[in-house]
């Protein structure tokens, strides 16, 4: 069996095996959308509206492959993604780093909220391990935060670049209320179930992100 970038005893395996990952993926999309340049690139080059489910599934497959598959499979998939980014001119280091850090923050935070127990050292180790994800997507390793403290500083430093653009608000609404065939919407529990999942994802966003969307922060929420 070919070895992957992460071993079964890695923190990345523990976080990415947690059932909260689906919620974390949705939260990541909401958080990533708050950078107007990154969101403009998605709006211009992605079929997000027509294939939101497919995009979420492909993102999940990408994360799973880089986490659990062999190095050969992970590198092959990452090279394909880099090629797409280069072709569409979506390879700006600053924006790639934003997307990466919003994803890492979302995965770690939702896992902790769901009950995964990690020490401060293990949380920092997760940030350190996820530098591999950043490198594979084409980000300069020297620019990537490697601890929770560095992650927090990164969000402070970038906050002036963030706001909820019209594209971001439309994407958030689309995520919360995706178009469903009438049979699914009215004949199954998928609509209320999906609404509950997206509500949890939105509620788990940091205060500054909810503030940018002008969403309320309820008592007891971070």
Secondary structure topology:
Layout: H1 11-16, H2 21-32, H3 36-45, H4 52-68, H5 71-87, H6 93-113, H7 120-129, H8 131-137, H9 148-158, H10 166-176, H11 182-187, H12 190-203, H13 207-213
Helix pairs in contact: 2-6, 2-12, 4-5
Description:
α2 (21-32) packs across α12. The longest helix has 21 residues, at 93-113. With 222 residues, the chain is mainly alpha-helical. The mean pLDDT is 91. It has 13 helices and no strands. The protein has helices spanning 11-16, 21-32, 36-45, 52-68, 71-87, 93-113, 120-129, 131-137, 148-158, 166-176, 182-187, 190-203, 207-213. The protein has one domain (11-177, 184-213).
Name its key features.
mainly alpha
Structural class per helix/strand content?
mainly alpha
Can you summarize the main beta sheet?
none
Helices and strands, in order, run as: HHHHHHHHHHHHH
The domain count comes to: 1
The share of residues in extended strands comes to under 5%
**Mean of pLDDT:** 91
Report the span from N to C terminus. 43 Å
Please bin the fraction of helical residues.
55-70%
Question: How many separate helices?
Answer: 13
Coarse morphology? globular
Low-confidence stretches: none
Number of strands: 0
Radius of gyration: 17 Å
In short:
With 222 residues, the chain is mainly alpha-helical.
């Amino acid at each position: 069996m070919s070895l992957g970038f992460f071993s079964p005893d890695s923190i990345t395996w523990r976080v990415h095996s947690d059932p909260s990952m689906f919620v974390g993926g949705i939260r990541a999309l909401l958080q990533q959308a708050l950078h107007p340049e990154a969101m403009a690139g998605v709006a211009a080059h992605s079929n997000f509206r027509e294939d939101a489910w497919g995009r979420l599934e492909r993102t999940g497959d990408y994360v799973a492959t880089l986490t659990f598959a062999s190095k050969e499979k992970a590198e092959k998939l990452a090279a394909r993604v880099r090629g797409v980014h280069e072709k569409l001119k979506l390879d700006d280091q600053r924006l790639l780093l934003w997307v990466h850090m919003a994803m890492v923050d979302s995965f770690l935070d939702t896992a902790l909220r769901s009950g995964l127990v990690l020490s401060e050292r293990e949380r920092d180790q997760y940030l350190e391990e996820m530098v591999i994800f950043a490198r594979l997507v084409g980000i300069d390793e020297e620019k990537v935060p490697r601890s929770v403290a560095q992650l927090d500083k990164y969000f402070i430093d970038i906050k002036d670049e963030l706001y909820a653009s019209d594209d971001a608000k439309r994407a958030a609404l689309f995520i919360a209320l995706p178009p469903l065939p009438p049979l699914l919407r009215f004949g199954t529990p998928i609509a209320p179930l999906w609404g509950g999942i997206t509500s949890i994802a939105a509620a788990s966003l940091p205060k500054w992100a909810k503030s940018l969307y002008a969403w309320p922060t309820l008592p007891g929420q971070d």
